[in-house]
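Aim 2 progress. For Polysaccharide deacetylase family protein (PEP-CTERM system associated), the working sequence is reproduced below.
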Amino acid sequence: MINGFTIDLEDWFCSHNLNGNIKYEDWDKLPGRIIGPTMCILQLLSKYQTKATFFVLGWIADRYPDLIRTIVAEGHEIASHGYSHRLLTDMTREDFKDDLGKSVSAIYNSCRIKPKGFRAPAFTVVKSTLWALDVVKELGFVYDSSIYPTSVHPDYGIGDAPLSIFSPQKNLIEIPLSCASFGRRNIPCSGGAYLRFLPYPLYKKLVSNVINSGRNFIFYIHPWEIDTEMPQIKLPLLKHFRHYTNISSTLGKIERLLQDFEFTSLERILKENNRAIPELILTSSYE
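Predicted structure tokens for this construct:
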């Protein structure tokens, strides 16, 4: 089973966890640190001859076009993470359409690629924002990778969404984030904080559970999650724990993951997926 390796390409101050402390309008005033950790990830991917999907924030593409071109030159897929990292739950349909369109333009201007895939900031394609999939399709995207089939997180998740790749509507494919399945309980394990929090042997068991069930494991990470020197902002205790825990061990865990499992880009997973992808329309029953 081949698995998906994805990077949400955003700088340390773009994270949803810091929204209450850092305003979007102030991003340009802060020291950018995106290049160092991204290059480190690229070197690791090259070492293991692995291609990945980079969900690029349009704001980053506008300011670091050389970095985007470097990613493309390494043979990785470029997808969209929106422009401003605003959550879909904080936007209207028109706000989102403008933001996503702006991201497409920024990415195209940086590397002459029109992205085929989209991932919402903080996975906020949720029950109340399923309208976003109409916009994603309208703007010509082939797939979305925003739905997390879990109910345990306060900010995201559709607990009864399918665990495997499916089509939520005609001419659009959904590549959901991965959950291990134990009976009726879904345990989120796609990456990010879940990778950082758990001992690697336990994390590996969760990944193996996904693969052994016949599903592609979909991994994600942010460059700031390997940046041991990023500025630390005073946060409420829970947010501080979620954001900064085990940063120093993340890179080593990613390398072990690349040693233990085979990964590629989401674009290639779709191309090599010979199974019929079921059409499981997300209707009002999810509302």
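The radius of gyration is 17 Å. This observation will guide construct design in the next reporting period.
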